[in-house]
Amino acid sequence: MAASAALVVVVLLAHLSASARVPTATPARAAAAARYARCAARLAAEPPRPLPPDPPDPPDPPDPALAVGIEPGHVFVVQGDLRKLSADAVLYPTRSTDNVLWFPDGAPPGAIAPPMDAFTEDERVQKLHAPDELAAGGAGPQVWLAQLNSKFAPVPQPNTPLSWFLAAAEQFLTAAYADITASGEPPKNGRVRHLLALPVVGTGAKNAREVSGDILTALLGTLYAFASSSEMDVVLVVKSPRMFSAAQASRRQLAASDRELADRQWRALSRSQLSTARRLARLATAGQLALFLGAGASAGAGLPEWNQLLIDLARDKLSGEAELAAFSRLSSLDQALVLERRLGGPERLQAAVCAALQTSHHSLTHALLAALPVDGVVTTNYDDLFETACLGAQVSYNVLPYQPGWANSDEERDEDGTHAGGAGARASDGGVSAGGGGSRGAKRWILKLHGCVHHPEDIVLTRTQMSEYSDRRQALTGIVQTMLITKHMLFVGFSLRDENFHKVATTVNKALAGHARAADAGVVGGGGGGGAGGGAAVSGRAAAGAAGAGGSPIGTVITLHYRPFLNDLWPQLALVPMEDGDTLPQSDCARTLEIFLDRVSLLASTTSRHLLDANFDGTFSPQEHALREELLDFRRRLLAKPEARKASAYRLVRDMLLALGDDERGLQRTPYDAWANEDVESGDVGEPWQGDAQPLLAGEGAEDGGIRANC
């Protein structure tokens, strides 16, 4: 820089000398020369300046949606019952409200169905108009009906082009978007984005089931294109485990082939959140993850969180805003006690709470969590929405403490061979009965720590009830202690303020600290397993996690906002806020949580259940095609040797083939068969659900007079 300044001085002086030789000097020229001289003097006196930094690398090309001021929507995939999911608009693949598969209880009261002749080739999707109070107040989503029966297509099956089925989905997205935008209605249940939900169109038995894989891949592409150009979220709801496996496999392949899509899909998540999602997915697939659900998990279904529920109940029992403000400053236990006395006793308070928690549609969060491969769930919630989501995901369950022995008992079975509320429960009531759920050989147990809406007398609300709870339910807290020791607990929607949980966690901390000291002394042997009714034996994972003060966390807490001091209060837990640095509105953080859980679900999903199902050819990678051919060749040789199928080990081989999507009708049963076990997934080829172990619910393409679900 000094050399540059000297050069400038030389140039300026030379210029001045040249000016001096000009015979026609004027006052203006003299003034200019003086300015040059002053500038040269300043440059000569200035210290050297540092060189400017190199220009930054050019940014990535902007997302086309962002370039026009649109924050792209997100595409979710869940396994569940479309009729039970809370959304702003849903697509039913039928033209008629008389279809008992999609309307088992009939059309909504007062709903006006479109006439059949309203469905034309250009307008194959029509809105089901509801009374104004339903349309505006919105317990359920806006329902759209669609013409998807290929016998009405210009080219009937088996030659109906895939584009004909996809056109109905595109018409739904376009029409629902326009209708919601024109209405000005905000998203339901406090979401920050509207949510559109639809099934895998065209894969019913009378449609294009044999090319389900091609339809699925093309449909996902359509949904991604819509979400990238709009501000609405979309959720694809599938029913069978095979379709869910194929859908998740298609998502991975689409992301692998389109870098821009892969980046845009998870743009809302930080690197830390993405890393945590991978860690939780690995724990889930290893069978080491358990869930702990609080009131926040039900907020997306429109249910109030605990403090808000008490304030809502108190409004009619308090005199004025001043008393309500004072009431809001009390602890939740004291608030419940005040309400109990104002309402006239614990029974009336419990009944009021149950009435306030009645809703028919579960949240997207429930659906994302229900399909995770976890066998143990603890919840402080009274509602039954997670149970409803489990039914939709075809996950059988027992609810503790109400069916503690049903998992191993043949007693109390209904005439149809199932338990009320279990995986084979009645479709009309969502499968959740007053019995609370239950199924022999259930894959999951759900511990209702504070009671259930189906058992109001057990609901824990006041400080007195909390104290009585500690005495009466020591066995339940023992289960939670066992899970904290033997599993990694994922907390969703839970504030960590529950006093009973504090006591449980304190006991676990003491146990782990003592175990760590014993491990350091070399006196700890291999740990045994612990289940819902098992002992508190410490697993190898727990021993490693407890070793030393810097051991692995025993759980992960998902919070919407950053909460100062929470790390100091709970050092044994990993805390993951959904806001990354910036302070965001709660609704934005709640949507980030949904995207985070969608990422966990994608990474934890088994993407091999459809491998031997020829209907999903369109979703296989070259490597999967090669493996599939080898397995099919093995299957052909095995079925050609009846003697080999008489071996006791054949059942294990057959179960492996079934788990990979084989059709059990081609596999001969043997004397060693354990086919009656409800854990076996039977007859779930494509959509809809079939088989003895699961309810027959609405299927894609079920047009004009479906068969009523078995009861």
From TrEMBL:
<feature type="region of interest" description="Disordered">
    <location>
        <begin position="45"/>
        <end position="68"/>
    </location>
</feature>
<keyword id="KW-0732">Signal</keyword>
<dbReference type="Pfam" id="PF13289">
    <property type="entry name" value="SIR2_2"/>
</dbReference>
<feature type="region of interest" description="Disordered">
    <location>
        <begin position="406"/>
        <end position="437"/>
    </location>
</feature>
<feature type="compositionally biased region" description="Pro residues">
    <location>
        <begin position="47"/>
        <end position="64"/>
    </location>
</feature>
<protein>
    <recommendedName>
        <fullName>SIR2-like domain-containing protein</fullName>
    </recommendedName>
</protein>
<dbReference type="InterPro" id="IPR029035">
    <property type="entry name" value="DHS-like_NAD/FAD-binding_dom"/>
</dbReference>
<feature type="signal peptide">
    <location>
        <begin position="1"/>
        <end position="19"/>
    </location>
</feature>
<feature type="region of interest" description="Disordered">
    <location>
        <begin position="677"/>
        <end position="711"/>
    </location>
</feature>
